[in-house]
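Journal club side-thread
Mid-discussion, someone asked how the predicted structure for our own chain would compare to the paper's figures. Pasting it here so we can look after the session.
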Amino acid sequence: MGVRLGDHRRFLFRTYLILLVGVVLIAVLLEVGLNLLDRPPDESIDPWVEKTLALIEDHLVKAESYDDSVAALEDVIDVPITMLSPTDIASMPESTTGTRRLVDDAGRIAFLHFSDDLPEVIYLGPVDPAPNNSFFDWAPTVYYLLVFALIGFWIHPLLRDIETISVAAERFSQDYRSPTRTQDKTTELTTLAAQVDAMSLRLSGLIQSQKELIAAMSHEMRTPLTRLRFAIAMRQEQTDSAAYPSISSIQQDLDEIEALTAAMLEFARLDHPDLALNRESITVDTLLAAIDLRPINDNVEIDVESDPAMTLHIDVRLMTLAISNLLTNAQRHARSRVVVRLRKRPDASLIQIEDDGEGIPESERETVFKAFTRLDESRTRNTGGFGLGLAVVARIASLHGGSANVDASPELGGARFTIQW
């Protein structure tokens, strides 16, 4: 059924989100890495603090009174200084030399300085931590916002061009008569848009020419076929009975050509963009009544398994054509039995036609629904077919929003064709 516009938008959103998440992760990893590299050890002491404590120690060693010296030093450095006895310290370190850095619950910093020349320990502080600069608090947020804005500014025209080209390509896939015109609507991917426009224009011309040729040939062939039939009828009246088998063979060849012409016209009509389904709700009985269930081969029996009251929402003419094609195909290859099953599930409706023939090799099951594909390379009237019947089935299933597939019949052993919508 094609890609919907919502799918394009989800693709654009995912692309933008992936870029943003990637940039944010890189930024976070860089920030964490730089912080780890730049973080000083917890036990490190600023050299200026070490020098200050050394000067305090030297001044107190020479002082006659600790109280007067401490008061004078506090006035000079404007930081509290306290002399503590070792017994006042709850947990003494193993080494009673050097300086220890302390941080309380409020984040204030203090220093213990142990000296061999002083009987007491110098306690410097506590000092309130330096106030954080509000700019640095907001800097990461501002950085990420700028990254988001920059990525959005850079990628928006690219995503817009991609969406323009994607939507135009989707519309072209639905109607080959309208080539894309995206070059003038793009800003960054103009070259790509021009190439897509040129390609769609060539494809549109080729497809239309091909379909017009098929339609013209199919129509024009009817006139000479009619003349040939008339000439054969006239000739048959003028010849003896010995020539009847030859004339009959020629008539059968004409019938085959006419059937091929009709099949080509039907296939071309099904592939036309303006084709609209005429859906209606009908019972299985009504559908089966519109199908010729009489066997084309006396040796083959056709069984139908379904709920007669089951309702299907379909285009009756097209679905009848699809089932008839599958029935004809099954009877050509069946040995003695063909089964038609119509089922309804909560999420889908199914039509299955099985036969007890040789089946289809798994490697060829994908190709049988392509136009003019024949697994039997012979062209005898016994096998029949032009390779269009199953292609018509697949197209009708697609028009109903479903699909057609083939696998092995678990009951009969031959092929099982399924239309699901």
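Post-session note: DSSP finds nine helices and eleven strands in the chain.
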